[in-house]
């Protein structure tokens, strides 16, 4: 069974937000909004939950920092102690730059990798981009999309028309 996306274009951002709330009230869950500029009300209308990405970045950053600090301490104080001019073998200030840099690098690479997996790269296009009129989403169109199984597409089409969509399109996954 292929997945379908049912797209509806609305006249304004207010109409889009009202439609998204209406779709959620009717039980549709896999909603998305496409607008030419950020519309803050869509986040609440979509029912988006708090992202886990900041916690993942924090964990990766702390892991990278601990790894860098322990590696520096081990190599300087335990594995290959080298007394240079009476300096202590373990000095916190000398280890901080590398620790900080590896923390930032670990967090950045982890977020990059997580987003690659989350967005399904290297698949860089989406079937909804095949709809010619959907190009208005980057200029002046306010679109709502609902991902559903094939047999539910007519229900979503009817719901979008009832909620005031100017036009409704259905895109099937793998139809190219």
Question: What's the arrangement of secondary structure elements?
Answer:
Blueprint: E1 3-10, H1 13-25, E2 31-34, H2 41-46, H3 53-79, H4 92-119, E3 142-149, H5 153-162, E4 167-172
Annotation keywords:
176 residues; alpha+beta; 5 helices; 4 strands; transmembrane helix
Short description:
This protein is of the alpha+beta class. The protein has helices at residues 13-25, 41-46, 53-79, 92-119, 153-162; strands at 3-10, 31-34, 142-149, 167-172. Strands 2-3-1-4 form a four-stranded antiparallel β-sheet, with helices on one face.
Question: Helix coverage percent of residues?
Answer: 40-55%
Main sheet specs: 4 strands, antiparallel
User: How many β-strands, per DSSP?
Assistant: 4
Structural class: alpha+beta
The helix count comes to 5
Distance between the termini: 16 Å
- The strand line-up of the biggest sheet is 2-3-1-4
Protein name: DUF3341 domain-containing protein
Organism: Corallococcus macrosporus
Transmembrane segments: 52-75, 95-119
Pfam families: ActD
């Amino acid at each position: 069974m292929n997945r379908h996306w049912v797209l509806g274009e609305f006249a304004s951002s207010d109409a889009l937000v009202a439609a998204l709330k209406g779709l959620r009230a009717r039980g549709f869950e896999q909603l998305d909004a496409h607008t030419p500029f950020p519309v803050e009300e869509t986040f609440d209308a979509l029912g988006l939950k708090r992202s886990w990405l900041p916690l993942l970045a924090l964990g990766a950053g702390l892991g990278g920092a601990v790894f860098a600090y322990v590696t520096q301490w081990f190599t300087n104080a335990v594995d290959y102690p080298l007394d240079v001019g009476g300096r202590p073998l373990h000095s916190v200030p000398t280890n901080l730059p590398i620790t900080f840099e590896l923390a930032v690098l670990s967090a950045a690479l982890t977020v990059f990798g997580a987003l690659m997996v989350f967005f399904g790269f290297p698949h860089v296009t989406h079937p909804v981009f095949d709809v010619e009129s959907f190009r208005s989403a980057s200029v002046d169109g306010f679109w709502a999309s609902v991902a559903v199984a094939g047999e539910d597409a007519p229900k979503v089409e009817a719901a979008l028309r009832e909620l005031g969509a100017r036009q409704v399109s259905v895109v099937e996954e793998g139809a190219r």
